[in-house]
Amino acid sequence: MTGIEIYKRLPKTNCKKCGFPTCLAFAMKVAQKQVDISLCPYLSEESRKILEAASRPPIRLISIGNHNKIEVGNETVLFRHEKTFYHQPGLVVRIKDTQPLNDVTQLVNKVTNYSVDRVGIELRLNGFALVNESRDAEKFCKLIKTVLDNSDLPIILMSAEPATMNLALQKTSQNNPLIYAATRDTWQDMAQLALNYHCPLAVSEAQGLSQLAELTKLVSQKGVEDIILDPGILDSSNSVDTLTQLRRLTINGSYRTLGYPIITFPCDSTSSIEEEALLAAQHIAKYAGIIVLDHFSPETIYPLLTLRLNIYTDPQKPIQVATGVYPINNPEDNSPLAVTTDFSLTYFSIAGEIQSSGLPSWLLVCDTGGLSVLTAWAAGKFNATQIAKTVKQFDIPATINHRSIIIPGYVAIIKGELEEELPGWKVMVGPREAMDIGRYLKQNWVN
Ligand code: SF4
């Protein structure tokens, strides 16, 4: 719907309750999918229904699991810079029921306990895809039990046999697993299982997008609402084509039949751990909802988690740390004081370097709206006035017994102004790069 079409259905009282000065301004934001229609409390029931249906996200939000659940979908744009991507793809590790159970237990514990901290955010893997490779229901159930006994991460149940899937769901439906998959041959049985156990269902069709749409339509007409699409095994170039077409059809073409998240298997179209990681990276960027990996190795998982974090942060909202003074390595009142901005990447780079130097220090963080040092300085948000204000705001003279402050080398130009703003203080110009701060402190700090 255009902004004008939405405007026609609004009360047109300009009451501002939605946070916008006029109904027209609100309508324009709704049309751009930047705000939700529910912000207007005065819509008639009829208008609400029509506008909610029109403003529903083109890709349905699907949840898998209960604890640490995977939530994917609800995306509204083709490119991240147009707005943001909302729900980062789940990265799951595939385990087959032909693998020895001792190995499975070890792998499950490693994957479940793997966690890295990046810019103050904990990054983790999201679950397991459990494969009935043996076609033996008992072996499949043993694998599922072993995984659930050792992990609370979500699971995907992969079996070609509806009877085996039924047995597995009897024991796991409370975990809200993803059922994989409804195919041309099994869709009626698999869809019935999804309805019986209230679990999401993957629809798999590798013949082409028209065929995938036909099969998905059949499954949804049977009453299944929570669907994940599997367009088949895709190599690198097929992935870009197919996944981009799927996203375009749903976002630009409003083609609701394919308006669901996508599952991909880089593990099936690559022959080494490095290739698998490269293809998974491509799928993170465009446009997978769940990515199934065969390998767990911190050397490839960490870059994938970092890439995912970068792509799925809101480009309009920098990741920030709270303004304040941070103690590092148990500082005392004669320890050095350095100052920086509240952009997370800047803060954690400097804090990390100081920490690894082992030198006790204070790090003062100024409110710059999440900008890095040079950007904040250019925007007038990291200058002598702002730093002096932050020194007073956090009563730094009461924390330390000296009057020296180290500013980043990139803003050496503000040294004189800061000395005027903080009479009696010695302003020291630190290094330009965070990696040099430890050496700088060892060579220059005397108190
Ligand atoms: Fe218009 Fe509704 Fe916003 Fe009031 S709350 S200004 S009626 S859109």
Describe the 3D structure.
- The protein is an alpha/beta fold.
- It has 17 helices and 17 strands.
- The chain has an eight-stranded parallel β-sheet with strand order 10-9-8-7-6-3-12-11, with helices on one face. A three-stranded mixed β-sheet has the order 13-15-14, with helices on both faces.
- The radius of gyration is 27 Å and the shape is globular.
- The mean pLDDT is 94.
- It binds iron/sulfur cluster.
- Iron/sulfur cluster (SF4) is lined by residues 10-11, 13-18, 20, 23, 26, 40, 42.
- Iron/sulfur cluster is lined by residues 10-11, 13-18, 20, 23, 26, 40, 42.
Instruction: Identify low-pLDDT runs.
Output: none
User: Averaging pLDDT over every residue, what do you get?
Assistant: 94
Helix content: 40-55%
The DSSP helix count reads: 17
Report the span from N to C terminus: 66 Å
Beta content comes to: 15-25%
Radius of gyration: 27 Å
In short:
The protein has 447 residues and is of the alpha/beta class. The protein has helices at 3-8, 23-31, 45-55, 101-113, 137-150, 162-172, 187-197, 209-221, 236-251, 273-285, 298-311, 344-357, 373-378, 384-393, 396-399, 415-421, 437-444, and strands spanning 62-64, 70-72, 90-96, 115-118, 121-124, 127-131, 155-158, 178-182, 201-204, 227-230, 263-264, 290-293, 324-328, 337-341, 361-366, 404-407, 426-429. Helix content is 40%, strand content 16%.
Keywords, please?
single chain, 447 residues, alpha/beta, eight-stranded parallel beta sheet, three-stranded mixed beta sheet, 17 helices, 40% helix, binds iron/sulfur cluster
Give the secondary structure arrangement, pairings included.
Layout: H1 3-8, H2 23-31, H3 45-55, E1 62-64, E2 70-72, E3 90-96, H4 101-113, E4 115-118, E5 121-124, E6 127-131, H5 137-150, E7 155-158, H6 162-172, E8 178-182, H7 187-197, E9 201-204, H8 209-221, E10 227-230, H9 236-251, E11 263-264, H10 273-285, E12 290-293, H11 298-311, E13 324-328, E14 337-341, H12 344-357, E15 361-366, H13 373-378, H14 384-393, H15 396-399, E16 404-407, H16 415-421, E17 426-429, H17 437-444
Parallel strand pairs: 3-6, 3-12, 6-7, 7-8, 8-9, 9-10, 11-12, 14-15, 16-17
Antiparallel strand pairs: 1-2, 4-5, 13-15
The chain binds iron/sulfur cluster.
Iron/sulfur cluster binds next to helix 2.
